[in-house]
Amino acid sequence: QIQLVQSGPELKKPGESVKISCKASGYTFTDYAMHWVKQAPGKGLKWMGWINTYTGKPTYADDFKGRFVFSLEASASTANLQISNLKNEDTATYFCARSRSKLLPFFDYWGQGVMVTVSS
Amino acid sequence: DTVLTQSPALAVSPGERVTISCRASESVSTRMHWYQQKPGQQPKLLIYGASNLESGVPARFSGSGSGTDFTLTIDPVEANDTATYFCQQSWNDLTFGSGTKLEIK
User: Which of A102, B12, B40, B63 makes an SS bond possible with B16, Cβ 3.0 to 4.6 Å?
Assistant: First the structure.
């Protein structure tokens, strides 16, 4: 069955970096784009951008340009999200989500989410 | 950005019909999708392309609309439907609505 399994929770200090992984199984990894979605505590969902799993090309939403990097370990069917120079407002749960269609992006499978807490 | 507006909360009794609305700040054609999120869980896809029921989702859920006004309908509502429901558009980049929290009385 199709699964996206993310890494475990993280506790970081402001200014540090974090790398979150999302391992896919049950399908051909390079056939579907991978997106990242942020959910701050008690808040809604915010789309961060996506990575083309075939070419490795990332695309970032405007609010996530600069400190955020999407990358792949395609041989391991894994997508990664790295956040540098962490700020308190980065405290959130981060989801990876598979997009079924390039032309009509919606998310049919989601990871379980990674809670990142930024606190001094 | 295309802003999606949802009413914040609804409360209904089991067996009733509930409609959850989502209004877009500009036309998104039928590129609207709906998700259900229960506390502590990841979102779950319910409806894609405004009206297409995702495989495995009960037929009690349905979606309609085009342009700027969209509706998710649950009929009949069950106790297990307590959750927050989000709309998401994919016409102009991707944005989510703020969510509608559904309480079953």
Answer: B12
